[in-house]
Design a protein that fits this description.
By secondary structure, the protein is of the alpha/beta class. Helix content is 20%, strand content 36%. Helix 3 runs parallel beside helix 4. The two termini are 29 Å apart.
Length: 205
């Protein structure tokens, strides 16, 4: 699976090296250039409006964006990664800081799922992806909470197996967080639903 890693504006820990160690392509969005450089990661493409960080003095692989635009710098980077044709897009430095930007990154995960691309938003303690209707088998992870939230007004037909708290044909709504802080009970969990979309989150205990 061809992977693109995007460095967004927030600092990124060296503990996340597993994502870029095996990446096929790296994009640094705006201040993400500083994080990548501090970690010794060479970006293949740099882009941004550089309204919150100095523009890097590089040639050829830098795209200067206007400050007033519909896209965030990270969203523009995701669109570029989609144009290139990556099957997995990982956003680092995109959780925390301004919550509106975190929310924008969460919505971007749904776009990626709709395009048939696996999108991941990750930091040192959290990993988030978006799921569309279907059945998913999730290998056991220890020392994490598994949480599920609807990405829409409601998600229908949710069934959970192999977890401490199971559900059968349940309708999740965006006004009751029933999917928070579940745990693995078996070697794999099965998540299925028939309509809507879900955020799947792994959070360290």
């Amino acid at each position: 699976m061809k992977r693109c890693v995007i460095f967004a504006a927030l600092p990124v820990s060296a503990a996340l090296h597993k994502w870029w160690d095996t990446a096929d392509f790296v994009i640094a969005a705006d201040a993400g250039y500083e994080s990548a450089r501090a970690l010794g990661v060479k970006a293949d493409l740099l882009l941004g409006d550089y309204d919150s960080a100095p523009a890097p003095d590089l040639d050829g692989h830098t795209v200067k964006l206007p400050a007033e635009k519909d896209d965030t710098d990270t969203y523009y980077a995701v669109r570029k990664a989609l144009e290139i044709g990556f099957e997995e897009i990982v956003i680092l430095g995109g959780i925390g800081g301004r919550f509106d930007h975190t929310m924008a990154n969460l919505q971007t995960l749904v776009l990626l799922a709709q395009r048939g691309v696996r999108g991941i938003l990750a930091d040192e303690t959290t990993e988030i992806t978006a799921l569309l209707p279907g059945t998913y088998e999730i290998p056991r992870r220890d020392n994490v909470y598994l949480s599920l939230f609807t990405a829409e007004k409601q998600t229908e037909g949710v069934s959970l197996r192999g977890l401490k708290y199971s559900l059968t044909n349940y309708t999740m709504t965006n006004s009751f967080p029933i999917g928070v802080s579940n745990e693995f009970e078996e070697e794999k969990a099965t998540i299925s639903f028939r309509k809507g979309s879900l955020y799947l989150m792994f959070c360290q205990k």
